[in-house]
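Hi support team,

I submitted a single chain yesterday and got back a structure, but I'm not sure I'm reading the token output correctly. Could someone confirm the output below corresponds to the sequence I sent? I've pasted both exactly as they appear in my results page.

Thanks,
R.
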Amino acid sequence: MALPAPRTEPARDWIGLAVGLAAGLLLGRLVLGTLRHGQAWGVEQIVFGVVAAVAAAWLLRRRQARARPPAPPDTTPVTWTEPAPVRLTDLERGIQDICRTDRGFDAARFAGYAGMTFRDVQQARMARDAGGLRDRLTPAMYVELQARCERLRSSARSARVAAVEVGAEVTEAWQDGTRDYVTAYVAGSMLSHTVDDATGRAVDGSPARPVAVEAFLTFTRPAGLNFWMLSLIQGEAGLTG
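Hi R., thanks for writing in. Yes, this is the structure output for that exact sequence:
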């Protein structure tokens, strides 16, 4: 079923043109009549003049609107730029690898464990016995720590440690085959000195002056949900005396 054709604009233009011509003729007649008789314009002539001017302006505006070309469509192509991939640091990549086999691994919580382990190692020095840490040390680390304790005992000396104030943060993490590795940086201060067992006098360090603590503790374990063991201590807080 065919739809009726829409009304076209030319009809409106002809109406406007007729109105404009009529108003113009009327205005011209009024002006000429006034000039002939030498009379001033009255209210009626002014009203007719305004109507004629409005009609002429309306017609001119319609013609200009039809003559104006339509605005060209926006042809600017829309482009999609894929965001650059975020590059992970070596530490972030290592933590990500560890989390694949242990989703509960948390670097901040591990840093707290590293700080606690450092304090426990200092307590083992004081006791001159690493037996209490055996399950938390790799076999090689246990042998080294126990040997240091034995040297203190054989030299008739004892380590004194107090006021251990340290913080820790994870600095390295990686996975090598079937093993996980994490290194934590421990820093702070503590009171540490060595005394002669016979006299009780300090032979190394000071019981009143804190010393700076700076050490790197490396831990390892079989990849997955297994217990971390201390495997290496590096730095100024190495087990001396």
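A quick pointer for reading it: The first strand starts at residue 157 and ends at 176. Let us know if anything else looks off.

Best,
Support desk
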